[in-house]
Backbone:
């Protein structure tokens, strides 16, 4: 889902002539992007882990998912609509899992969610350009709370609920989108994707350091949980 900002700008509306390498990067990046949320879905619903997760990041994931879906509709982009819809389902499953596992009350997230929907509706009014910019900013801003949560809580609690696979996929898909942008000469895609990749990579590092460590039975070795 974190590749949605780059994917929206990468539609044929903007790039009429796309070479083979660029197309390959875009297709692979899009495929990886729609899978981004699902490792976190698994960790929440089946692993029953939520420690270290930032509610704001998961809430923003749904909101910018809605924004990119609407953007795809306005651009008449079937690819954008399909990928955004799949990503939105994953983002919604992450938010729902976080709310359920952490037993978060409606007052903690419903008002913010409704305000976000109003903002998205307002961004739709001027046209797809304004909506695209708003969604792109929200995509980047949505990653920041998770990074800050890991930095703030470093050394005080574990991050067992944070899926490193989720953010690792975000790094991969945005690196691919950066390659796409470099090939087609679109600086917006390059900058947007590199920022998200850097933030996601930082989350992977911090989450790895904060993973709970378990002593191996019968020995003194210690290992970190994987996921």
Residues:
């Amino acid at each position: 889902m974190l590749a949605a900002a780059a994917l929206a700008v990468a539609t044929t509306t903007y790039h009429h002539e796309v070479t083979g390498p660029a197309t390959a990067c875009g297709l692979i990046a899009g495929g990886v992007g729609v899978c981004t949320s699902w490792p976190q879905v698994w960790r929440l619903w089946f692993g029953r882990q939520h420690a270290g997760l930032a509610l704001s990041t998961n809430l923003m994931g749904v909101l910018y998912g809605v924004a990119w879906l609407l953007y795809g509709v306005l651009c008449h982009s079937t690819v954008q609509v399909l990928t955004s819809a799949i990503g939105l389902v994953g983002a919604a499953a992450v938010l729902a899992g976080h709310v359920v596992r952490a037993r978060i009350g409606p007052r903690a997230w419903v008002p913010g969610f409704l305000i976000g929907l109003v903002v998205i509706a307002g961004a739709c009014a001027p046209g797809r350009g304004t909506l695209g910019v708003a969604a792109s900013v929200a995509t980047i801003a949505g990653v920041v709370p998770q990074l800050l949560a890991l930095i703030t809580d470093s050394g005080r609690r574990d991050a067992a609920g944070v899926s490193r696979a989720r953010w690792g996929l975000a790094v991969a898909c945005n690196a691919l989108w950066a390659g796409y942008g470099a090939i087609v000469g679109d600086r917006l895609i390059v900058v947007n994707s590199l920022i998200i990749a850097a933030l996601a990579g930082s989350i992977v590092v911090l989450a790895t350091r904060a993973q709970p460590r378990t002593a191996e039975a019968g020995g003194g070795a210690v290992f970190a949980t994987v996921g």
Remarks:
- The CA atoms of residues 58 and 96 lie 9 Å apart.
- The chain has one domain: 4-224.
